[in-house]
């Protein structure tokens, strides 16, 4: 089994929204903001190559929305989903499984494209994976989270017949990873725990956007249930520290991976490194 980083570009989000109740004087030490209080964030995905299976976890923001939409997010960088796949010798048609941690636009927007005023799947040969609880949450959204769930990103998966549901009450349908479900950020977000050689690599999605979010109170203002996030983070980070998990960071603008350790102040960053360093 081979693992590959798929960089899809960078965007900007408000630093206050990304760190919730934590003051800017503290969070800007790890995630400096520009003059508009906006911080850089990656949209880093993971490709699992295993025999005939090519599994992509998340796919970035895509490019089909209007300029009016994108002006709020300041897309930048030279990377794209297609460019990253092509650099590894793959194309969109090679992907067999498109696994989505959750359906917020910056995680699933790259899976659907607009062609001649119609929405089509980017990965035409792939199964698209969500779970029934989260699918219902995304297609019948609450008013607070509605802007993150875009119908054009989501419904074409079902309309095409490519949508598959993970049964949260059964073991993972993938031999390559187990799944943990967390509901503080959004309902039933899926965290793959990949078994790679003698290591466990966790794709932490929005449970832990960056190394700057490791201390427990550093919870995003975007989280729908922040107190549940606190409980989920505490449990997960203790397990990660005890078992030396490698955490794959989707949004950290600099660090691809990290490990954590127990300290007198709680779980803290141990070290940060690139994925290649452990392959």
Helix-strand pattern: EHHEEHHEHEEEHHEEEEHEEE
What general outline do the C-alpha atoms trace? globular
Output the radius of gyration.
Answer: 18 Å
Q: Name the strands of the widest sheet in spatial order.
A: 1-2-3-4-7-8
Structural class: alpha/beta
Low-confidence stretches: none
Please count the beta strands (DSSP E, at least 2 residues each).
Answer: 14
Number of helices, where a helix is a run of at least 4 consecutive DSSP H or I residues? 8
Helical coverage, percent range? 10-25%
What is the first-to-last residue Cα distance? 10 Å
Main β-sheet description: 6 strands, mixed
The amount of beta strand, in percent, is 25-35%
- Mean pLDDT, all residues: 96
List the main descriptive attributes of the protein structure presented here:
alpha/beta
Can you put this structure into words, describing what you see?
- The protein has 279 residues and is an alpha/beta fold.
- It has 8 helices and 14 strands.
- The protein has helices spanning 15-19, 24-27, 67-70, 81-87, 105-108, 132-139, 151-159, 226-243; strands spanning 2-14, 38-50, 53-57, 97-99, 112-115, 118-121, 127-131, 163-166, 177-182, 189-196, 199-203, 246-248, 257-263, 266-273.
- Strands 1-2-3-4-7-8 form a 6-stranded mixed sheet. The protein has a 6-stranded mixed sheet with strand order 9-10-11-12-13-14. Strands 5-6 form a two-stranded antiparallel sheet.
- It is globular.
- The chain starts with a strand and ends in a 6-residue tail after the last strand.
- The model has no long low-confidence stretch (mean pLDDT 96).
Short description:
Helices cover 21% and strands 32% of the residues. The chain has 279 residues and is α/β, with parallel strands linked by helices.
């Amino acid at each position: 089994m081979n693992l590959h980083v798929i960089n899809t570009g960078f965007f900007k989000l408000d630093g206050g929204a990304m760190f919730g109740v934590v003051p800017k004087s503290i969070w800007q030490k790890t995630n400096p903001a520009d003059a508009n209080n906006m911080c850089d964030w990656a949209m880093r995905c993971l490709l699992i190559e295993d025999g005939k299976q090519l599994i992509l976890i998340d796919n970035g923001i895509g490019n089909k929305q209007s300029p009016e939409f994108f002006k709020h997010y300041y897309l930048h960088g030279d990377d794209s989903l297609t460019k990253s796949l092509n650099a590894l010798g793959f194309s969109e048609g090679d992907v067999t499984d498109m696994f989505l941690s959750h359906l917020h636009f910056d995680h699933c927007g790259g899976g659907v494209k607009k062609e001649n005023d119609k929405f089509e799947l980017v990965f035409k040969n792939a199964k698209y994976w969500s779970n029934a609880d989260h699918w219902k949450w995304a297609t019948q959204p609450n008013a607070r989270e509605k802007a993150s769930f875009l119908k054009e990103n989501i419904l074409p998966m079902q309309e095409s017949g490519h949508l598959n549901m993970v049964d949260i009450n059964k073991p993972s349908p993938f031999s390559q990873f187990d799944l943990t479900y967390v509901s503080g950020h959004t309902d039933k977000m899926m965290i793959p725990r990949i078994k790679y050689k003698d290591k466990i690599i966790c794709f932490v999605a929005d449970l832990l956007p960056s190394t700057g979010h490791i201390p427990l109170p550093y919870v995003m203002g975007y989280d729908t249930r922040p107190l549940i996030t606190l409980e989920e983070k505490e449990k997960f980070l203790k397990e990660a520290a005890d078992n030396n998990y490698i955490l794959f960071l989707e949004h950290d603008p600099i660090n691809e991976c990290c490990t954590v350790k127990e300290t007198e102040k709680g779980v803290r960053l141990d070290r940060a490194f690139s994925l290649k360093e452990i392959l």
